[in-house]
């Protein structure tokens, strides 16, 4: 165990070995880290991977393992019901010593590639960090982990979260291959050529169609409030302009409005300005934020890497002589429900390739659609419409699984704490489902209101699914060591590897092995399968 802190007075730093208490200063920290990594692969202890690791990567140094104090402090605070309290080293030291707890320093939004400084540890604040403080907090966190209800599981969560932070920094450093010329072609195909001022031609045409459908002039379809008022004048009441709401409306403005919304998002989020700002030297390099939402899913500081529209993915093209291995975990959340609830009948269905089809054959007279609605409705708290009879069947045939999510909902409504399988704790909910990272699929309309029980019902499943995906990612990183394959993208339950063509079969085998290993590590000898849809493609947009 080696702790590392940068030196605010220069490019060097200080290292400390936990077991011996030895401390030393090094003028070239990157070289010292590289030497120790090659000799013994220690677990590095540092304040924040986001602060320390990018500088090491720029110096050509990669590490195998770390303990991220800030991420761990956040997990422990959440477990104690103190979610959102300051998690930085200064705050952790103050808590240990009974001093006033200072707020965390604000983190700036990521700057597009090409604008960042390249000095070693340029992002690290000027205040001095002491090795003794670092190790004292580490020891306190170790005690805190031991005091959780399931310390073995919580240690796995901490290890996975820290491994995820390493991978996130590595992916941001490596970048996702991106062809700016193809991106320009597809934008022109979808939107028409860019205009000196205002939106491109296709958006202007759709705006005219929408106005004609409403019999108005000057309506701005990019402003939801104006659209809601236009429907009101037409005698149609809608709460918002979400896709699932609009699809239920019978009006000639709906079709062009849905098309406008999709193309407007592409133009504003991944249009020409985005490409100019974020794609450099044939790579898109966002800054990922591990654990950036309450469910444990990742977020980004700029660039929108987690929400690249399918059509834009055509610009993600492998380098010459390389290919992409794209692995997507199908039906992950229902399979997680089967594993965590211990419902044997649902677990038997989850042993099949298509869980919904197996569920339909077992309990829904072969109707796969009803089986899917029932399971998603139970996990997301949908209690009306077509879900009512389907949920009754689910409750009768799979009572253990149904009771698992119901218990989480009741606990949440009573103000209690609910946890994922490994111990991540759901905070008090504020804001929308999407702001919380609990994003319902299109088949399930988000329930009205902000009742905490609806969040906690899904949290116990989605947060555990995020843990499975993190363990898969960490295991795959180890499996790929010694190859030329690189992890280049991770979106919730999908991972993309860029590798030489001749190594593709080895990567595919590693992906499948990592998925099986993640299931065993989390759930033991469960019969639930976690199959992956794996594609080997030259362009990301061609993946299944």
Automatic annotation (TrEMBL):
Write down a Pfam family by its short name. DNA_pol_A
**DNA-directed DNA polymerase family A palm domain: residues covered:** 309-503
Domain of life according to the entry: Bacteria
Q: Which residue stretches belong to region Disordered?
A: 1-20
Entry's EC annotation: 2.7.7.7
The record's keywords, sorted A to Z, are:
DNA replication, Exonuclease, Hydrolase, Nuclease
Q: Coiled coil: which residue ranges?
A: none
* Nuclease found in the keyword field: yes
Q: Which Gene3D superfamilies match?
A: 3.30.70.370, 5' to 3' exonuclease, C-terminal subdomain
Record InterPro entries: DNA-dir_DNA_pol_A_palm_dom (IPR001098), DNA/RNA_pol_sf (IPR043502), DNA_polymerase_A (IPR002298)
List the GO molecular function terms.
exonuclease activity
The chemistry this enzyme catalyses reads:
DNA(n) + a 2'-deoxyribonucleoside 5'-triphosphate = DNA(n+1) + diphosphate
Record has Nuclease as a keyword: yes
Write down what this protein is called. DNA-directed DNA polymerase
Q: Which organism is it from?
A: Actinoplanes flavus
